[in-house]
């Protein structure tokens, strides 16, 4: 069994166990989040085989860890509320892992247009910053639709954007310094 299939099995077990916890609490928002995350992951695996491109297994694992940390540690165990820093560090880690993932997917779908390390750095940094803004817009949309308070004011949003930027800088450094990987 190859690593994407192992990742799928592990991801299914992690999501399933966390799903049961939220199912017992009748949390519709988490149910929809699980469904969206799980089907997005399934779609990626299907597209990976359909278009015959590969994303490094360790990057897929980073994305799975990000999703697991969000749902299980952050939501299920309540670390978004219990810890001041969990949300910030997850924004950093999540942006870094999703930025590496998006960069690899784009690199598989399109011919690289940048050959300058500086331009690659700027591209990856911009990609991560965009992903960070999209995270914040999704949080805003969830708050609006479900009448919740995921965002705790402007300071929280600004710290999230700052740590998203730090995560994209780390991803850009990894991409530029790993000439054989990326």
From TrEMBL:
InterPro entries: YjdF-like. The chain crosses the membrane at residues 6-23, 30-47, 53-73, 85-106, 118-138, 159-178. Keywords: Membrane, Transmembrane, Transmembrane helix. The keyword Transmembrane applies. This is DUF92 domain-containing protein. It comes from Syntrophobotulus glycolicus (strain DSM 8271 / FlGlyR). The lineage of its organism: Bacteria, Bacillati, Bacillota, Clostridia, Eubacteriales.
């Amino acid at each position: 069994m190859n690593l994407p299939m192992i990742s799928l099995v592990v991801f299914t077990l992690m999501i399933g166990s966390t799903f049961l916890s939220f199912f017992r609490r009748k949390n519709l928002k988490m149910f929809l989040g699980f469904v969206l995350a799980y089907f997005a992951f399934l779609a990626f695996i299907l597209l990976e085989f359909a278009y015959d491109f590969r994303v490094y297994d360790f990057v897929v694992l980073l994305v799975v860890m990000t999703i697991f940390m969000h749902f299980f540690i952050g939501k299920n165990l309540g670390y978004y509320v219990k810890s001041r820093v969990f949300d910030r560090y997850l924004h950093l880690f999540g942006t870094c892992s999703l930025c590496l993932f998006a960069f690899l997917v784009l690199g598989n779908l399109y011919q690289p247009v940048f050959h300058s390390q500086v331009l690659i750095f700027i591209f990856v940094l911009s990609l991560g910053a965009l992903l960070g803004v999209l995270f914040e817009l999704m949080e805003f949309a969830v708050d609006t639709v479900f009448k919740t308070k995921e965002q705790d004011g402007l300071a929280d949003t600004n710290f999230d954007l700052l740590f998203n930027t730090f995560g994209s800088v780390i991803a850009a450094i990894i991409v530029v310094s790993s000439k054989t990987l990326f």
